[in-house]
Design a protein that fits this description.
It is built from eight helices and twelve strands. By secondary structure, the protein is of the alpha/beta class. The protein has a single domain, classed as P-loop containing nucleotide triphosphate hydrolases (Rossmann fold), CATH 3.40.50.300. The strands form three sheets. The chain has a six-stranded mixed β-sheet, sandwiched between helices. Helix 4 packs across helix 5. The protein is globular, with a radius of gyration of 18 Å.
């Protein structure tokens, strides 16, 4: 597997400053979140709030693969969504590269996500009508890159994840492992500083899952990677594992 596109693009080197390196890639400080509540109040008398996170504080450094472990409902996915700016927690702050996402508008969080965060979903979330290459290039359309540059970047990434002969295939023509590799390539298309992955091997067999984990480990050499999983093999590749129960951190194991 080649590393050229999986590693940080040299064109972004000027953006990395000494100040950038002095802060964690991701910082959660006393983050709590309730679903079904607005500023601490129930939306209706019949609707009860569900506490997803309870005063969670976690730092993730550049080059670190952090695993989030815990049963369903423990808060793993909520943390990923908060890091990606897909939700604003009820309390606390979530910072990406020193920028407090919770202080930004919806538009500001979207801009920060597109620039700094790549997301890998458990069930791939590929558009079935588009080829593998077109799926990978989608975020680059939003970024405003010319068609030729999008095509070249997407082709390079698919080659790097071992799918150079699948660029024109539709998702329905790909195996589960191939679809997940397309999803990872798409998440990397904008050269993000942070990658979040929700159960990235949950839909895969053992052998295919192992190859995806190798890819994520390679990606994590110069990015922050946050992986939520129930799978012991997935957590084994992490540099550090945070265990959650009922929305709270009960163990932070390096």
């Amino acid at each position: 597997m080649r590393n050229r596109s999986l590693r940080r693009s040299s064109s972004r080197g000027a953006e990395a400053t000494a100040e950038d390196e002095s802060v964690p890639a991701v910082r959660l400080e006393n983050v709590s979140h309730e679903y079904g509540s607005t500023t601490g109040r129930f939306r209706s008398r019949s609707e009860q709030a569900v506490t997803a996170l309870r005063e969670v504080s976690i730092d993730v450094e550049r080059g670190e693969v952090l695993g989030l472990e815990g049963p369903s409902g423990s808060g793993k996915s909520t943390i990923l969504h908060a890091v990606a700016g897909l939700l604003v927690p009820t309390a606390g702050t979530v910072s990406v590269l020193g920028t407090d996402l919770t202080s930004l508008s919806d538009r500001g969080r979207t801009k920060a996500r597109r620039r700094h965060v790549g997301i890998v979903f458990q069930r791939f979330h590929l558009l079935e009508s588009l080829s593998a290459r077109a799926n990978v290039a989608l975020p680059l359309v939003q970024a405003g890159l010319p068609k030729s540059a999008r095509r070249e970047r997407a082709t390079d990434l698919l080659t790097d994840v071992g799918l150079e002969d699948r660029t024109t295939h539709l998702p329905g023509e790909l195996s589960g492992g191939e679809r997940q590799r397309v999803a990872i390539a798409r998440a990397l298309s904008t050269d993000p500083d942070i990658l979040v992955a929700d159960e990235p091997t949950g839909e895969l067999d053992t052998e295919t899952g192992a190859s995806v984990l190798e890819l994520l480990t390679n990606v994590g050499r110069d990015r922050a990677v946050v992986v939520a999983s129930h799978d012991a093999a997935t957590l084994a590749v992490a540099d550090r594992v945070v265990t959650l129960r009922d929305g709270a951190v009960i163990e932070d194991e390096r």
